[in-house]
Amino acid sequence: MEQTAEQARQLDHLASAPPPGGSPFAAFGMPGFGGPPAPAVPEPRPILELEGEAYEDELDALSDWVDDFLLPVYGAEVTTAAPWCLQWQEHSDVVAWLHALWLAYQQHKDAEAGLAGMFVWHRDFLTHAMAAIRAPGGPLSACMTSPERPAHRLLPGPPPSARTEKEPEAQASGPGEYGLAS
After folding, report:
1. Contact in structure between 58 and 49 (CB atoms under 8 Å)
2. What is residue 20's predicted lDDT score, i.e. its pLDDT?
3. 130 within 8 A of 97, measured Cβ to Cβ
4. What are residue 144's phi and psi, to 5 degrees?
5. Are 141 and 135 within 8 A, CB to CB?
6. d(CA 178, CA 181)
7. CA atoms of 139 and 85, how far apart (whole Å)
8. pLDDT 10s digits, 110-129
9. What phi and psi values does residue 127 have, to the nearest 5 degrees?
10. Would you say 98 and 133 are in contact if contact means Cβ atoms under 8 Å apart?
């Protein structure tokens, strides 16, 4: 009976709120234990939303990753079925794809992603992104299709939608939202 009473006292003590004083772990600087708060991790932004020096710095870091890691490991041969461009940084859609791939790589190589993190990156990100970027009719299709013939050409994008072109006329007429009478 005494043992049961002692266990009940211990459970009550462990379940009670900590004393108002500092935590014994505060001296170790552990966030959540009375130590300094963890620094806020900057939220990653898509590279095409960056401007000026922030864009250039991010593009430089991305270029290092692409040139030093991605292409040597996953670049494969340049062919008509898998074109490439030595000036890929000038293709904004390719920059956006590669940046997203790089962000996913950073997340999935982290220990918090677990042992299968890199498998998930290969399966869900690498394969799809490289297939889209290097597709025969993709954004680099007018560029280098043979290592012996380096080429670079930006393909024209679609024109603005008809709605975008008609928008000033609708604003000039003025009747209500979307050009409908109020």
Report:
1. no
2. 60
3. no
4. -65, 120
5. yes
6. 9
7. 10
8. 999 999 999 999 999 999 99
9. -60, -45
10. yes
